[in-house]
Design goal:
about 280 residues; alpha/beta; TIM Barrel; nine-stranded mixed sheet; two-stranded parallel sheet; 12 helices; about 40% helix; globular; disordered N terminus
Length: about 280
């Protein structure tokens, strides 16, 4: 549970967030790009053989302590993205890393800090498929758990991606759903509404191949009705997806606030960085 001061910060932030209602679906944003095609274009910018571009390696408090490699390039344009400055400049951002370098840096951070978990985060880890699988090959047998944080689009598009991930029993996939409905997805990402179905299909594909996975849903902009309908759909895929349903909310870092104001979208519920409840860390 969050501390009393954190809870007070949450209540204050909730009032602030509720002061301005979100715009109607699609209002103020262009809707319609295909995130699968965008991913194909980005591969030529951030993937090079088995190498991939990264911009940072770090430790952190999330998941109780985890080593993180922050990659460059994403096939969604979420208005609440904290990594948008790198996301929007993939050609100029970051530096090239081999799978050996990534695995070595992650394992080194974990060893020095006493972590048992590692991840690739920042932008979208699944863009460079061969690179990701090569990193996992090198981490196999290390005793470290790997958390794959993904929007799931490419895994939903191609079931063989889930099949390839099933070879690694130390991998858990956190599929981050961008909203609770196709309409919310389109408003928050600018992508085609139907691409939301690929996120759900990713969960289905992963479970079909026996890969450990759960949904993390951005709820800052959602209404209760859409959340309940989403849970019904998740339950139809597998009841455990409802049991393991993770709530995700916007953290109001200054550069995130800048993007939200620019897009004309404001969350119903959000948290200031110094008032994040413990259960969200």
């Amino acid at each position: 549970m969050p501390s009393e001061s954190a809870a007070e910060g949450w209540r204050a932030q909730k009032v602030i967030s509720g002061a301005r209602a979100p715009p109607r679906v699609g209002e103020g944003r262009g809707v319609g790009y295909d995130p699968v095609k965008l991913a194909e274009g980005l591969k030529g910018v951030v993937c090079r053989g088995l190498e991939r571009k990264y911009y940072r390696f770090r430790g952190g408090r999330w998941y109780g302590g985890i080593a993180t490699a922050d990659c460059v390039g994403c096939n969604l344009r979420c208005v609440f993205c904290w990594g948008w400055q790198v996301r929007d400049n993939p050609a100029k951002a970051g530096f090239w890393c081999t799978p050996d370098e990534v695995a070595g840096k992650l394992a080194g951070i974990a060893r020095r800090r006493g972590y048992t978990q590692v991840r690739i985060s920042g932008n979208e880890p699944t863009l460079c498929r061969e690179h990701l699988l090569a990193v996992l090959d090198r981490l196999e047998g290390s005793g470290l758990a790997f958390i794959l944080e993904t929007n799931g689009i490419l895994i939903g598009h191609d079931p063989s991606y889930a099949r390839d991930l099933s070879k690694y029993d130390f991998v858990h996939v956190r599929v981050s759903l961008k909203g609770a409905s196709p309409e919310e997805f389109a408003r928050l990402t600018g992508a085609r509404p139907e691409a939301f179905e690929l996120q759900l299909k990713a969960l289905e594909n992963l479970l079909d191949y026996g890969v450990s996975a759960h949904p993390a849903v951005m709820l800052s902009f959602s209404e209760p009705g859409s959340v309940e309908r989403l849970k019904e759909r998740l339950g139809e895929i597998d009841p455990k997806l409802v049991e393991e349903f993770e709530e995700e909310y916007v953290f109001l870092y200054p550069h995130v606030v800048k993007q939200l104001k620019k897009a004309g979208v404001w969350p119903r519920v959000a948290y200031s960085p110094d008032s994040i409840p413990q259960e969200l860390i």
